[in-house]
Write a structure and sequence with these properties.
- By secondary structure, this protein is of the alpha+beta class.
- It has two helices and two strands; from the N terminus they run βαβα.
- It has a two-stranded parallel sheet with strand order 1-2.
């Protein structure tokens, strides 16, 4: 039986060209933590849905 990967608890909201997001992604990879990336263009980040 093949072990399953746990569902990521970390969501990284990022833009493709963001150096800050790239650094966070590299750190998550180095630590071996599961994560998922969600594209977050400016319109999304400025909407009320983004800020709980």
């Amino acid at each position: 039986m093949k072990p399953t990967m746990p569902q990521p608890d970390i969501t990284l909201y990022a833009t493709k060209l963001s150096g800050h997001c790239h650094r966070v992604e590299l750190l998550l990879r180095m630590l071996g933590l599961p994560y998922r990336i969600v594209a977050a263009p400016a319109e999304f980040r400025q909407s009320p849905a983004f800020w709980p």
